[in-house]
Amino acid sequence: MNNMPEVKIGVVAVSRDCFPESLSVTRRRNLMKAYTEKYGEEGIYECPVCIVESEIHMVQALEDVKNAGCNALVVYLGNFGPEISETLLARHFEGPKMFIAAAEETGDNLVQGRGDAYCGMLNASYNLKLRNVQAYIPEYPVGDASDCADMIHEFVPIARAVVGLGSLKIISFGPRPLNFLACNAPIKQLYNMGVEIEENSELDLFEAFHRHAGDERIPAVAKEMEAELGAGNKKPEILHKLAQYELTLKDWVEEHRGYRKYVAIAGKCWPAFQTQFGFVPCYVNSRLTAQGIPVSCEVDIYGALSEFIGTVVSGDTVTLLDINNTVPKDMYEQEIQGKYDYSLQDTFMGFHCGNTAAGKLSFCEMKYQMIMARTLPEEVTQGTLEGDIIPGDITFYRLQSTADNILRAYIAHGEVLPVATRSFGGVGVFAIPEMGRFYRHVLIEGGYPHHGAVAFGHYGKALFEVFKYIGVPVEEIGYNQPAGVRYPTENPWR
Question: Fewer Cβ close by (within 10 Å): the C or N end of the chain?
C-alpha cells in the first residue's frame, strides 16, 4: 500500500528585465547540472519554457510545471528578479514553494555579470508577506550552483511533509479512554492545516472485525508475522486473530480514504478493547506503522499526525512513546555515569506497551500486556511486542493543538543509549542534553501530553521548517535550550 507522498520539484528561474536574462539562463543550467550530479535526475524538473520576467511569463511557467506533474516549486533568482511576477507565481502554485538566489561567481565579472540576487531576495520576501504567501526560505538562501543544489535537496523532505499533510486523512476509532484527557485533541487546527479527520465508534470497528472472520488472506498474514517474530513468537495461538485485525484496518483504510491520498490511524486499545476483541492491538499497530501507515494508541489524534510527519520527513519508521519514567540512580551510576556525557536528569526511559516496530528493537518477543493483566485475565491481553529499542540518534518531537486551541510543537535531539533497560514493553534508555530543564519548561509549561513521537535519526532542522511552514508560530516551537540559555519561565536563581 503506497501511503507516502513523493515530490517532483519544478525549478523556475526569474529575471528582472533591466538585468541580462542570460545570467538567469546560465545560472539555472549550472544549478540543474550541480543538482543532478549530486542527487540524480529523479524528482526534479527544469522549466525550459521561459525565464519569468513578466506576468505573462509567470502564467506560461505555471502551466508548464503543472503539466510536468510538479507538486513543489523552487523559484530561483538568477539575478535581482521581478518581485511582482515571481511572487504571483508562488501565490498561484498549489503546493510547497521555496525561494533561493544566485551568488556572484567571480570578482572578474562584476559589471555585466553582476546579478544582485542578494538584494532581490529581500524584495521577494517583502512581496511574499504582502500577498500572504507562505514559502520556505533557507537559513542563508544565496549561493553558487552547488550551494543552491544542496538547499533544494534539504527542501525535499519539507516539501514531502507539506504535500502529505494536504492530502492526509486521520481515521480515529472511539473516544479517548476514561481518565485520558492528556490526549485532548481540538480538531479545528487539523482543518487549518488541510488535514481531514474521520471519527468512528470502536463498535464500527468491532463489527468490521467480525466481518473478516474466516478471511482467506488470514493464513498468509499470520505466516508473515511468524517469520518476522522468529524465536520471539511467544503467543502463536493469537496470530490468526491479529492477522484478522490487520486486514480489518487495511480494508477500512482503502474503503474510507475517500479523495485523500494518505491515511494515519488513531486507534483504541483499552479499556474494553481486550475483553471484546480478545487481544491487544499493539503488534498490529507496529506492523502497520512499519508499512508506512502510522498508528497511534489511545486515540491520540495529534500523535498519529506527528508520526505521519516524522515518517515522511525521515523516510523511515517512527514510533510513539510515553515519556515514561526516570532512570534509577543506581542504574545510572552503574551503566551511564562516566561512560556517557549525560547527567542523571538528562536521562529518562521512553516506553509503550508494544507498538514499536520489530525493526526498531534490538530484540523482540510477543507477550501479554503486563499492566493490563493486573486487572484482566492474562489471555485477553496478548499481542504486545516487547524489546529494547535500538541504540542510536533520535529526534523526540510532537505537534499538538493544546487545550487553548493553539498549534504548538517541540523538537529535541538525543539518543537511545546502549544500556539494557531491565524493564518490560517496548522501551529504551533515552538521553537528551538538558532534558530536565526541557521537561519542566517546555513539556510541562507547554501543557503537552505524555506521548512523544520518535524519529530514528536527527531530523530537527527539517521538522522545524515543516512546523513553521504549516503555521506553528516560531515562539511556540520548543526545543532543549543549551546550558546557560534560560527559558522564559525558568527561575534565574535556581
Answer: C
